[in-house]
Amino acid sequence: MLLFELIQAINMGVDVSTEPISKLMCLLPVRNGGHILRRYFDSVRTFCSGVIALDDGSTDDTRSVLAAEGMVKALLINQPRPSYRGWNDSTNRQRLLDACEDFSPQWVIWIDADEIIPATDIPLLRRFLDTEANPALAYGFEVLRMIGDENHYDKNKLWGYRMFAYRQGYTLPRRTLHFEPVPVQIDRCAWKRTRLRIAHFGSLTATMRRARYAKYREADPNRQWQSSYSELLDKPGHIWDLCPLAEGTKIVIE
């Protein structure tokens, strides 16, 4: 838990337990993320019972970092490649989902290497899974574009559907890039937005925004999967503090 968030949580009387949520498995596809995985694991170890990871052809130390991490219960490998050309997010995520069969988790959640769940949201996630979450539904998290540091963001109001109860035989959409990683067996009417948040750090600085733009142009040079990537270069707008959600916030947005 980040010190800033820990102080906020304590001041608000929030439970800051770091015990993992039993049977919640985190699925992680990553390429060349060795330099950011420490932050990632410092977060997910506080709420997941384990991580299934896939190294998608990294040329840095990602594979060795994953192999040395005790949270990683299974590590899948793609052969190293020199660029993001050939990135098939659907195939990677399907392999990760299939690998869950050996662990029989009750729930799975997708948290990417450049993301965390804010520490003050984790007690709410625990409570939600214990008391309210419906295994017939898929749940969306509000994705925040973090700017400058780990406590501020500009863009929000984008929901990524990342959590659902695991069932053997689930299949993901067959789309190379830019899709919601929700099994096709869960009908779209069963997707529910929540107030829970994901902090996304991939656009923290101008340099990182340019690198992210270059990554997607490399992976999708003909814009087959998205018509434009120019929004990835957007300069920061109004900056908001990342604050804990109000006490008593209803998690599911009706």
Residues in β-strands, percent = 15-25%
Alpha-carbon Rg, integer: 18 Å
Strand order of the largest sheet: 3-2-1-4-8-6-9-5
| Main β sheet profile | 8 strands, mixed
Average pLDDT for all residues: 92
CATH structural architecture: Alpha-Beta Complex
Low-pLDDT stretches: 1-17
Q: What portion of residues is helical?
A: 10-25%
Give the C-level CATH assignment: Alpha Beta
- Structural class by secondary-structure content: alpha/beta
Q: How far from one another are the termini?
A: 30 Å
Q: Note the overall shape.
A: globular
Helix run count: 6
- Beta strand count: 10
**CATH topology title:** Spore Coat Polysaccharide Biosynthesis Protein SpsA, Chain A
Number of domains: 1
Helix and strand succession? HEHEHEHEEHEEEEHE
What does this structure look like?
By secondary structure, the chain is an alpha/beta fold. Helix content is 23%, strand content 22%. The strands form two sheets. Strands 3-2-1-4-8-6-9-5 form an eight-stranded mixed β-sheet, sandwiched between helices. A two-stranded antiparallel ribbon has the order 7-10. Helix 2 (37-44) links the parallel strand 1 (24-30) and strand 2 (50-56).
Any descriptors?
23% helix; Spore Coat Polysaccharide Biosynthesis Protein SpsA, Chain A; 254 residues; globular
